[in-house]
Specification:
Blueprint lengths: L1 E5 L5 H10 L13 H9 L3 E7 L5 E11 L6 E10 L8 H15 L2 E5 L7 H9 L21
Parallel strand pairs: 4-5
Antiparallel strand pairs: 1-2, 2-3, 3-4
Keywords: Transferase
GO molecular function, one term: acyltransferase activity, transferring groups other than amino-acyl groups
Protein name: GNAT family N-acetyltransferase
């Protein structure tokens, strides 16, 4: 099993096909990917996209994140947006390897911290994140505001 930090120079057609053909369930909330959106995402200097494959090249999971800068002190931190493991590939270490890769990226890029959130009822994710010995675990309430068309 290995992780790959995906760049604009990689075979994005193949990766997008793998993502779209993988087995995801409702807990993943993975939408249909397209190559152009992936290219736009990767062209931003602050994005970090990680893919995890088994030794045969089968996709096991993905993660999207970005490096942010605080508006004070110029401190960098890595915000992990999503860590998704294919529903039929779970409990084999892919998520742990992805997280270890992201922690390594945060260290090498000079980030002061890595931040991510998980739903309270997502027991497998919370167990994984606890096993990686976080410095802090906070109770957070999340809010989502969907932007509606102005023509409504």
């Amino acid at each position: 099993m290995k992780t790959q930090i995906v760049t604009i120079c990689d075979d994005l057609d193949h990766l997008v096909q793998q993502i779209n053909c993988a087995s995801w369930d409702d807990s993943n909330e993975v939408c249909e990917y397209d190559v152009e959106s992936m290219k736009e995402y990767l062209q931003r200097q602050d994005t970090v996209f990680v893919a995890c494959h088994d030794t045969e090249g089968t996709l096991l999971g993905i993660a999207s994140s970005r490096i942010e800068i605080k508006p004070y002190g110029r401190e960098l931190w890595l915000y992990v947006d999503e860590v998704d493991v294919c529903s039929d590939k779970r409990r084999k270490g892919a998520a742990k390897l992805i997280m270890q890769t992201l922690i390594g990226i945060a260290r090498t890029r000079g980030c002061k911290e890595l931040w991510l959130g998980a739903e309270v009822d997502n027991m497998p994710a919370n167990a994984l994140y606890h096993s990686l010995h976080p410095d802090q675990v906070a109770s957070v309430v999340g809010y989502t505001y969907r932007m509606k068309d102005t023509d409504d």
